[in-house]
Design goal:
The complex is a heterodimer of chains A (about 375) and B (about 475).
Chain A lengths: L2 H5 E3 L5 E2 L2 E2 L2 E3 L4 H9 L6 E4 L16 E4 L6 E5 L4 E5 L12 E2 L10 H7 L6 H4 L2 H4 E7 L5 E5 L11 H5 L8 E8 L1 E2 L3 E7 L5 H7 L6 E5 L4 E8 L1 H15 L2 E3 L17 E5 L5 H5 L5 E4 L4 E4 L4 H13 L3 E6 L2 H4 L11 H11 L15
Parallel strand pairs in A: 4-6, 5-6
Antiparallel strand pairs in A: 1-4, 2-3, 7-8, 8-12, 9-13, 10-11, 10-12, 14-16, 14-17, 15-16, 15-19, 18-20, 18-21, 19-20
Chain B lengths: L2 H13 L4 E2 L2 H4 L16 E3 L4 H14 L3 E4 L16 E4 L6 E5 L4 E4 L5 H8 L4 E2 L12 H7 L6 H4 L6 E7 L5 E5 L10 H5 L8 E8 L1 E2 L3 E9 L2 H13 L6 E6 H11 L9 E9 L1 H17 L4 E4 L3 H12 L1 H4 L6 E4 L2 E2 L5 H15 L2 E7 L4 E8 L6 H18 L18 H4 L2 H14 L25 H5 L7
Parallel strand pairs in B: 2-4, 3-4
Antiparallel strand pairs in B: 1-2, 5-6, 6-10, 7-11, 8-9, 8-10, 12-14, 12-15, 13-14, 13-18, 16-19, 17-19, 18-19
The chains are: A alpha+beta (about 375), B alpha+beta (about 475).
Chain lengths: ~375, ~475
């Protein structure tokens, strides 16, 4: 009996991806086990699933046999506090991490795993100061679609030895293979944090960025007309910086984030979009009449358009502004007729990368840009 | 007429006669980069002025099946721009326009030949700067920084080139111009920016780079702390990090490096120091003030016998002068030297330094240590005299053994200088066959013919289309063999 037979169970009604049912589910407990499974999987088509918090994102796969569930690839392998790094198995929920007075600044939906966060490249308000997955991931272990185990990077932050495959796998939606382990740089937890909350117009974003207050986050919610700035640091420093921001854009200093902070603006069965524009175009986007919410400080915002016409108008606004817009999730009837990814520069090279890593198109076929 | 003669003629026709060099004497100017002990005279040097010309050169190379190597200012320290004897060296230094500075988007758009420091100079009037600051920032080019994913003293807090590039136009190895990213973040699809930055010219040649600009800090404070030895300085570094402080930079020099710097630039570091730390904090004034007191106290508690605080920019510059000139300065105390670049977990610093001392004693050479202590990036300078028989070999052996130490302690064979021609042989010590094979899948996607900077990074090139090991997956899809 091969690893495929040993490690899989029949799928249940819940084991589908965007309505495409799987036949089998496997939950390997180690990189070696996952490698054996994948090496034995022949021409079986695979979708990788973590906690499933974003499994409905992206187009459904063209076909599906096996769901590789990562939830048993669980736990912190190493936390070297003095070196400000950690190595974590892909199926570990972000919420389970306990890193003392340090933090791994990954943000995703409640319940999201480390691997799912890397594979879909989610981010949140803190991206302004700490960057995104690509800035925090320093090493990765993956199983290729042919079952070979490969790693790149390492456990030190500063490292330019070889290609940075971690970045290639970040946001690759499981189309290049299975991520089993990730090494990250950590940051010290701030001693003190305060929010400045105001109803200033979006043009105030430039004033905050132009001040030398180094905000950790600068979020906007155009529906409520609110702008909120997060400051982190020493107790005295944060108080002083908060009052500088308050003088600059008005509002009030609060220990609490607004209720919309870091919350996706779409409903469970609605359309969810990620928009990205140059920072100077954020005011225009917020005044476009479509409610948007997100990181005004980086120009990455989210919207919940009601129909395809609104998707297209939002996308046109972003593209014209020098940015782009991706539909993250949409209900089935809309998803089936929508170009979720929109125009993607560099697609020819991306197809060639896919062809090299997964010539049989066995990993998440059709889920990614350009039908990859 | 040889094929290379025909190629030179075609390039002259496309670029103009003064942009193509084939004269043997003139070619010798380009025979090495900053790693001068590797020398290869290229067959042809091309000096394109535009992205279109760069693409035309690459296209011509592809059609003639001639390898090409990109070079910026030629300051690289791993031989990444080492020419190919039968190839074209494409020098991007003529593309040196700053195409735009957009403080409102916190971006600048520059051509690859623009010098690193010029980006900061262009941004400073707007209150911004370009954060990555390799020691060679007065002469190194942005195109080279992109190829090497250059770091610098301040990348402890601000990251490397890869964290500061948001858009690229590049000539792919097939000669096509590709544009990815821009002023907006998170372009959809695979992270081609992340793949390209740091690929050492093996995935193409950058012709336009969009970089992040960082707001100038409200306050910068710098201290110089003198310690009896490297153990105490290392302990201070660990204590600072453990306290949750993220300085802009923590730099260390040992006694021999200090001696060299004094001889070269008379930086006036405290007499009798076995090690000095330069610690720089930047950010909002209120934060910097609070943390600076904390850092000063931690240095004292760790055994600093003298702490100087820079009173103004001039004194700050003097602190840095010793550090930034350290590589060249060892020329004052030794006729020859090897600059090494390795990384260890910062907590292993004391053990590794002791072992480096032992190695030096065993091999009868001296090692001066200069490093980015905050991120564990060592730059041991192995001193030797090429005039003494056997000394060069012993120095080379010491330098190689230091790299083995870095791997043994879970670090890296290069933190910022790159693999290039120099360290390809070390790659199998850090990575397994499957790791290197997987990296080369990316190479095959970009450059199936292996014409872009061949022989760099990877000790053994992968034959693209060949799938080593089990063929089962490919057998199911026979068309996969055809690339």
């Amino acid at each position: 009996m091969g690893a495929l037979d040993e490690l899989t169970r029949p799928a249940t009604d819940d084991d589908h991806v965007g309505g495409v049912p799987a036949r089998l589910v496997a939950s390997p407990a180690s990189t070696a086990e996952a490698a054996a499974l994948i090496a034995d999987a022949g021409d079986v088509t695979v979708v990788v699933r973590g906690a499933g918090t974003k499994i409905h994102w992206g187009p459904p796969p063209d076909r599906l046999d096996l769901i590789i569930d990562t939830t048993r690839l669980n736990g912190v392998v190493e936390h070297a506090a003095g070196d400000l790094i950690t190595v974590i198995r892909a199926g570990t929920p972000l919420a389970d991490l306990s890193l003392g007075d340090q933090q791994l600044v990954l943000e995703g939906p409640t319940g999201a795993t480390v691997g799912g966060t890397v594979a879909t490249n989610t981010s949140g308000p803190l991206r302004l100061h700490y960057g995104t997955v690509r800035d925090l991931l320093i090493g990765i272990t993956v199983v290729r679609p042919d079952g070979k185990v490969a790693r790149s990077g390492g456990k030190v932050v500063k490292n330019v030895a070889g290609y940075d495959l971690g970045k290639l796998f970040t946001g690759s939606y499981g189309t290049l293979g299975l991520i089993t382990e990730c090494a990250f740089r950590l940051h010290p937890l701030a001693v003190s944090r305060l929010y400045v909350r105001t109803t200033a117009p979006a043009s105030a974003v430039a004033a905050v960025l132009g001040a030398q207050v180094v905000p950790s986050a600068l979020e906007i919610d155009s529906a409520s007309g609110e702008l909120a700035v997060l400051l982190e640091g020493t107790a005295t420093g944060v108080r002083e910086r908060a009052s500088v921001v308050e003088k600059l854009i008005g509002g009030e200093i609060s220990e609490e984030a607004p209720a919309w902070w870091g919350v996706a603006p779409w409903s469970a069965d609605g359309i969810g979009m990620k928009l990205s524009v140059p920072k100077s175009r954020v005011p225009a986007l917020t005044e476009s009449g479509f409610p948007v919410r997100g990181s005004a400080g980086t120009g990455v915002l989210y919207a919940a358009p009601r129909d395809i016409t609104e998707v297209e108008r939002l996308r046109a606004l972003c593209v014209t502004a020098g940015g782009h817009a991706v539909v993250l999730t949409a209900p089935p009837p809309i998803r089936d007729i929508l170009d979720m990814w929109g125009p993607v520069p560099g697609l020819v090279l991306m197809r060639r990368i896919k062809e090299q890593f997964d010539p049989g198109r066995r990993f998440a076929p059709g889920r990614f840009v350009g039908g990859i | 007429m040889t094929d290379l003669d025909a190629l030179a003629r075609r390039l002259r026709a496309e670029l103009g006669p003064d942009q193509v060099i084939t004269d043997r004497q003139e070619l010798r100017t380009y025979e090495c980069d900053g790693l001068a002990h590797y020398r290869v005279v290229p067959a042809i040097v091309a000096l394109p002025h535009t992205a279109a010309q760069t693409a035309a050169v690459v296209k011509a190379c592809v059609e003639a099946r001639v390898p090409f190597v990109a070079r910026g200012s030629g300051t690289g320290l791993s031989g990444g721009a080492l020419p190919h004897a039968d190839g074209v060296l494409i020098v991007t230094a003529q593309m040196r326009r700053i195409l735009g500075v957009a403080p409102e988007d916190e971006r600048a758009v520059v051509e690859p030949g623009v010098i690193n420091l010029q980006v900061t100079r262009a941004a400073t009037p707007h209150g911004y700067y370009y954060a990555p600051d390799p020691s060679s920032q007065q002469i190194c080019s942005i195109g080279g920084n992109v190829a090497e994913n250059s770091g610098g003293a301040h990348c402890l807090k601000y990251g490397f080139t890869t964290n500061h590039v948001t858009g690229l136009q590049f000539v792919a190895p097939d000669g096509n111009l590709v544009r990815i990213g821009g002023r907006a973040e998170d372009p959809p699809g695979y992270d081609l920016l992340g793949a390209f930055v740091g690929s050492e010219g093996t995935l193409g040649i950058a012709t336009e780079v969009t970089v992040r600009l960082t707001r100038l800090p409200e306050s910068v404070r710098t201290l110089l702390a003198a310690f009896p030895g490297v153990d105490q300085a290392g302990a201070a570094t660990s204590a600072i990090i453990a306290a949750g402080v993220v300085p802009a930079a923590i730099e260390m020099m040992d006694a021999l490096a200090i001696e060299a710097a004094e001889a070269a630039v008379a930086c006036g570091y405290p007499a009798g120091a076995g090690a000095v730390l330069i610690v720089e904090l930047d950010g909002p004034a209120a934060e910097v003030a609070a943390q600076f007191d904390q850092v000063t106290a931690l240095c004292e508690q760790s055994g600093a016998f003298e702490i100087r605080i820079a009173a103004d920019d001039a004194e700050r510059a003097l602190f840095w002068k010793g550090r930034k000139s350290a590589f060249a300065a060892v020329g004052r105390i030794s006729p020859d030297y090897i600059v090494q670049d390795g990384v260890i977990p910062r907590t292993a610093l004391p053990q590794v330094l002791r072992k480096i001392d032992d190695l030096a004693a065993e091999n009868g050479v001296r090692v001066a240590n200069v490093f980015h202590a905050g991120d564990g990036n060592l730059h041991p300078l192995v001193l030797f005299d090429d005039g003494v028989p056997g000394e060069a070999e012993r120095a080379e052996a010491t330098s190689g053994a230091i790299i083995d130490l870095c791997i043994e302690y879970g670090g890296s064979i290069t933190g910022e200088h790159g693999v290039g021609a120099d360290k390809a042989k070390y790659m199998p010590r850090m990575f397994g066959d499957d790791d290197l094979d997987t990296m080369q899948l990316l190479r095959c996607a970009f450059d199936p013919d292996g014409l872009a900077n061949p022989g760099k990074i990877f000790p053994t090139p992968r034959l693209c289309g060949e799938r080593p090991g089990r063929h089962r997956a490919a057998d199911a899809f026979p068309d996969a063999e055809v690339f």
